[in-house]
Amino acid sequence: MRRLLLSTALSLIAAPVFAEDAALLLGMDRYLTLDRFSGGTDITDTADDLRNAGYTVDALENPAADAMRAMLTRLHTRSDDAERLIVVLAGRFVTDGKRSWILSVNAPAPTLFGLEQEAVSIESVLRVLTNTPGKSVLMLAGDMQATDAFGPVLRHGLGALEIPQGVTVIQGNPRSLNRLIADAVVTPRADIMSAVAGSRRLDIDGFQPETLVMQTAEIPVTDTAPRPVIVDQQAEIDMWEQAKRTDTEQGYRAYLREYPRGAFAIDAANAVAAISSEPNRAARLVEDSYNLTRDQRRSIQRDLSILNYDTRGIDGIYGPGTRNAILNWQQENGFAQTSYLTSEQITRIDAQAARRSAQLEQEAAVARAEELRLDRAYWEQNGANGRKPGLRRYLDRYPDGIYADQATAQLNQIEENQLGRADRADRDAWTAARNRNTPKAYEKYIKDFRNGAFRDEAQVRLNALRQDQSNAASNDQARAAEAALGLNVLTRRMIEGRLSQLGLNPGPVDGRFNDRSRRAIRQFQRSRNLDPTGFLTQSALVQLLLPSGN
Q: To which H or E segment does residue 150 belong?
């Protein structure tokens, strides 16, 4: 059903400051993922009758959850001065047995912790209705016989409602509720209790007095004779196009005031509801006006990452990760928490990131210098004499150290010399174990040659392989995290070039990460107090490619 009544348009234009009565009609029949609820939007057909009876009426068909909440918020505000309140909700309901919700048209299959996003609490609606006890009616139209379950907790329908004192709740199908409104709610001196008692399709709960009359006064008689309406279609189109260009609530309301029954009244009323329900819309429009390029957005994401605000990627796309990072930055820097940036904030973030980058560079240089000093000192104390125990101690302490290659070469030479002196069986067994290079092979050598010439070396290699196995899961995670960055050959070359500038000797700048590249990455990570996995993370990449002065 695609029809929005004049009452909706008028109510969205300008509600009186002190409304005496208020009505809210929300009807859903088309769900994106759930079954259709036939006739759900029919409940808006009574909007004109309620308006003529003196109610300020909000009516929407197939609204999203934000629009539903916005209308209920307006109803809550109006209820402070209202004498009568009518709420009619038609659509699909879900309950956990104690609480109940009406689902918006965008609702997926309900989950207990996902209802806040795409549903509205019936208990919250009931609390609003307590403002006019004795003259508050909640009407609910849904498939109350459905028994479909959503997991172990939720099911279709309504639970046991805790109805506040003075609030009347009536359930029925949309047609029966429409008839009740026309025949009893808006009819002068008509009794709702008698009308419900005379219908087999209506159920009533909550406040049930002997008589319940909502319309005590006569409805003023107006001249309803049709009059010719002359509409300048081009003027209407021009005003509508202007409203769309400005895309403001004021513009859409101006259109509705001029053309309450216009060709675009539905779209205008829906736009007003959407705008009024969007938080921080003005801030979003300010950021949108900058027309930031994707590269500019990437730059902002890099700046935020340098400042330790996780944007969950540097791709120029502002998703929940980036918006949350902006929100956290705004909170810590004393700005309104909108998650949208102003030009002042962009400039400040860039300046902060430049200072932080320079600071990181300085800290890394100090840390690297100290590491090199300790590395050289340890080499002089242990490895410089060229003896096997000292060389091994050095490599255990500094596997990526300045003299690691030299120590490894010397140990290999020592091993070759031992091979020449070992007896044939020992030599052959060790060569076989070394070629297999597995824990099982080294364990077998140690068992078979308890006094073998290579027993110590076998134990060292066995321990290293076991350590590698214990680190395999974390290494796989680190490798997967780097793969997720999607580094191309050009970016890898930039990384190797930067590592080379820092004196970390990554090997050839060819975009191919080898053992030397991994060692250089580990050295860089140590200098920045990052986990030295040898695989790049988003944080390491940002720090590596954003030197001071950027």
A: strand 149-150
In a domain, 373, yes or no: no
Predicted local distance difference test score (pLDDT) of residue 147: 67
Query: Radius of gyration (Cα) for the chain, nearest Å?
Result: 37
pLDDT score recorded for residue 75: 87
- Would you say the C-alpha torsion 12, 13, 18, 23 has a positive or negative sign? negative
Question: Which pLDDT value is given to residue 216?
Answer: 78
Do 15 and 76 form a contact (C-beta atoms < 8 A)?
A: no
pLDDT band at 85 (very low <50, low <70, confident <90, very high): very high
Domain range for residue 531? Answer: 476-545
Would residue 228 count as lying in a domain? no
pLDDT at residue 363 is higher than 80: yes
- Same domain for 491 and 466: no
Per the CB < 8 A criterion, the answer to whether 364 and 503 are in contact is no
Q: Which of 265, 333, 327 is nearest to 61 (CA)?
A: 265
Segment 500-529, tens digit of pLDDT? 988 888 889 898 999 899 999 988 888 888
User: How does DSSP classify residue 379?
Assistant: I
Six-digit token string for 173? 């199908």
| C-alpha dihedral, 536 to 302 to 484 to 474, nearest 10° | 40
Degrees to nearest 5, angle at CA 124 with 157 and 165 = 95
Q: How far is CA 188 from CA 24, 181, 196, 215, 219, in A?
A: 20, 11, 16, 5, 7
| Residue pair 89/125 in contact by the 8 Å Cβ criterion | yes
pTM: 0.47
Q: Are residues 421 and 505 in the same domain?
A: no
